[in-house]
Write a structure and sequence with these properties.
Helix content is 33%, strand content 12%. By secondary structure, the chain is of the alpha+beta class. It contains ten helices and twelve strands. A four-stranded mixed beta sheet has the order 10-9-8-11. A three-stranded antiparallel beta sheet has the order 1-4-12, covered by helices on one side.
Length: 424
């Protein structure tokens, strides 16, 4: 929505409503947790749910209240250290790998912190005329909160997935789908426009919109399924060095990796842990929780390749004008917000973040945010690969085709998957 065109009163109502809705959604996501779940940190990449609740609150306190609300006093000075993630310009921050070491503040104290900051933000919006600069910062904060809603689900899944009891987070039944016949969509060589269109929110790393010359290519209209990936395993894919990047080969051997993250074999049968519990492996569902190394090796085994991020955006944008609409995330999930596993291999978006072969870097004439938020995206543009397409954990209304996610090649606790491409 282009909120800049609204009147002052309309802007206030829009942002107050949006703020309440998004902040409430974060709390609603945690309804399946027990108090004991909130403080667990099994690996450095995974943050305790309690920390997410505190950090997203700290963001609004630091970016909006401290800098723009007259006479505001921080809720707790020590939270500046505990809940700052990586913003050096905002002062010191607690080490990511040690977030789970702290039993205090308690979950209830963090929730009280959230309520306090929420009340202050809403009062600030309703009692003063926040200018468009402040509202733009608030908009970034709301999208930041939605990013952490997805991160929460990723981290909750890893926390529960480490438990041999395989706890169930959501009791919603997943419908098994029939297999989809693989098909390819071709695109001509030519000049294409890439990046945020400009009629809604986008992060700085999605801009500016620019021209990109692409050679002719074809891209699969179906995501790689569990069944297809199982064939790769059964063909000895993890034992054949010819398919793997050198770093990837070292990684699977050093870490003893031989299957996707949440797969496990029980009595010679494959199962997959999901947020809906431990389930027999459904061969028709999209394979997920795959590293870049695994995605690249699978593509080599299939005598194909991973698409560039430009090819993925071209495909996604074209699909939105066909039967697969831009609102497909909502359509595939049927407006349900409690389905946390990909179920549709034929979806163009909203199932798994698809690995691209593109290194994460700034677009031509890229300009990062200013001030503290300079650190939001730009400083991570090194040694990471771009993923496109959104996933089942991406909040409804948050996704757009220009969205650039990014991870290191060995990481796979996010909802990542594979869409193949080939030259033509």
């Amino acid at each position: 929505m282009n909120w800049q065109r609204l009147s002052s009163n309309e802007k206030t109502k829009y942002f107050v409503d949006k703020y309440i809705q998004i902040r409430s959604s974060t709390i609603a996501l945690c309804k399946g947790l027990e108090k004991e779940d909130y403080t667990v940190q099994p690996i450095a990449d995974v943050s305790p749910p309690k920390w997410h609740l505190g950090h997203t609150t700290w963001f609004f306190e630091e970016v909006i209240l401290v800098k723009h609300m007259a006479d505001y006093t921080r809720y707790q000075q020590g939270y500046r250290l505990l809940f700052n993630s990586y913003y050096k310009s905002a002062g010191g921050h607690w080490l990511q790998s040690q977030r789970g070491d702290l039993s205090r503040p308690t979950v209830d104290e963090v929730l009280h912190y959230r309520n306090f900051v929420d009340e202050c933000v809403i009062n600030f919006l309703t009692m003063s005329e926040a200018d468009d600069v402040i509202l733009s910062l608030l908009e970034i904060g709301l999208n930041h909160e939605q990013q952490h809603q997805e991160l929460l689900l990723m981290d909750i899944k890893y926390i529960l997935g480490c438990n041999p009891l395989a706890p169930v987070f959501s009791d919603t039944h997943l419908n098994a789908l029939s297999s989809e016949k693989s098909s390819w969509r071709s695109f001509d060589e030519g000049l294409y426009e890439i990046g945020a269109i400009g009629n809604g929110f986008a992060y700085d790393n999605e801009m500016p919109r620019h021209k990109s010359y692409n050679y002719a290519f074809a891209i699969s209209e179906t995501l790689v399924s569990n069944g297809e990936y199982l064939e790769f395993i059964q063909d000895g894919g993890y034992a054949r060095a010819e398919f793997w990047l050198s770093l990837g080969w070292d990684w699977i051997n050093n870490k003893k990796v031989s299957h996707p993250l949440y797969w496990q074999k029980i009595d010679n049968e494959w199962f997959e842990f999901t947020l809906h519990g431990l389930m027999p492996l459904d061969l028709n569902l999209p394979v997920t929780h795959i590293s870049y190394f695994e995605a690249d090796a699978f593509a080599n085994w299939r005598v194909a390749r991973l698409p560039t991020e430009q090819e993925l955006e071209i495909y996604l944008a074209a699909s939105s004008f066909g039967i697969k609409a831009a609102s497909e995330v909502q359509l595939q999930r049927g407006e349900r917000t409690d389905i946390y596993h990909p179920t549709a291999s034929n979806a163009s978006c909203g199932q798994v973040w698809c690995w691209s072969k593109s290194h994460y870097s700034g677009y031509p004439s890229y300009k990062p945010y200013q001030g503290m938020l300079t650190e939001y995206n730009g400083k991570f543009m090194c040694n990471q690969f771009v993923l496109r397409g959104g996933c089942v954990a991406t909040p409804i209304g948050h996704y757009r085709h220009s969205y650039r996610n990014f991870y290191a090649p060995h990481q796979r606790w996010m909802f990542s998957g594979i869409r193949l491409a080939k030259d033509i």
